[in-house]
Amino acid sequence: MKSGVIKSSNQIDMTQGPILGKLLKFSIPLILSSLLQLLFNAADVVVVGRFAGDNSLAAVGSVGSLINLLVNLFMGLSIGTNVVSANYFGAGRQDRLEQTVHTSILLSLISGAILTTVGVYFTRFILKLMQSPPEVLNLAAIYLRIYFGGITATMIYNFGSALLRSKGDTKRPLYILFTAGIINLCLNLIFVIRFKLDVAGVAWATVISQCFAAVCVIYLLMKEESAFHLNLTKLKIDTHILAKIVKIGLPAGFQGIMFSFSNVIIQSSVNSFGATLVAGNAAAVNLEGFVYTAMNGFSQGSLTFCSQNMGARRPDRIKKVVLISQACIIIIGNALSLPMLACGRSLIGIFSKSPQVIEMGMSRLWVIFSTYCLCGMMDGLANCIRGIGHSLTPTISSLIGACLFRIIWLFTIFQIPQFHTPFMIFITYPISWVLTFVANIICYNIYMKRIDIK
Length: 454
Hints:
83% of the residues lie in helices and 0% in strands. It is mainly alpha-helical. The radius of gyration is 21 Å and the shape is globular.
């Protein structure tokens, strides 16, 4: 353990010792956290679909791309927080680590305020631009306004948990999410079934549970005895640290925005086929989320591992982390997606009993689940590049290889009458994953050669 760093059972020194064991110790609680979050989010969709109808299902399910579009810039900043704090932790810089904690939490409050303003006042306008079906638009607008009204709590939790993850603490955020998820599920049942609040009930349940999670993560940071200790009276933006967070986080956030923008365009194309495809697509997306978050757990692990080892000047371990994390992503991606594809109709049937909705959902699952590990590999390598301090490059490769490609495809190939089908929408995903992954391999090799020279 580095000098100046207090050893704790809630942290992992990633700069020495076996990599696979520590990567699993870090990533598994993170995967379980994400899977629990998705399970409870899926419960939102199931409850509203079963007890409020297909239009409500389509309303809640179709706004994910819009939420991601507005939120991803600030979620990128939380990635910057993770990288900067992990780097200081690996280098044993307690003074800078303490300043990073207070800068990050204040930044989360500012981010939440901005998102609330934009989300509450502009979502209906954006939904119209997305060609939301008339029977869905009003319900989606109600859901989004409540959701964004409480978005500050989500920002606090994500920035706070990013700080905890930077020292290897993924277990306590798991416990918080589990409890918040139980609260969310119970409130869903009460608000939607008992009080007939429809999509508003789902939104309020989400906001309340996220407020609980935010309070818990703040409490944990306030109880820390190391440089991760949070003192609310010391909240202050350190401009030097903010610049480092922005340097890493802004490109990552911009990449998320561009991915979400392309997904908004894809969602608009899906919307043009009517509410049945919208509902089937929404159900399929929820299933995909379980596989993605499992792969993303190792992707996030590689981000933190590379950041700590970059701070400790251990390029040899960085190379091993990349290979091991990529192998884990391939294994977990195929182990989950292929069995879920085989059971796809039954799984989509959980969300809706409509045979038409089930068939529309399957048309997406066949394309995505047969190639999904490519998506995890693409994101994992991009996070490794960010972990060693280069965030702009994977953003540019993603912008060209994924986002720009998808947009061009939908405005050219997809517009040809014989290619104007749902399949031609969904096939843009695996093609873009391959293009971006190849670009990331080239960039990673260039940067690692420079590190070896130094």
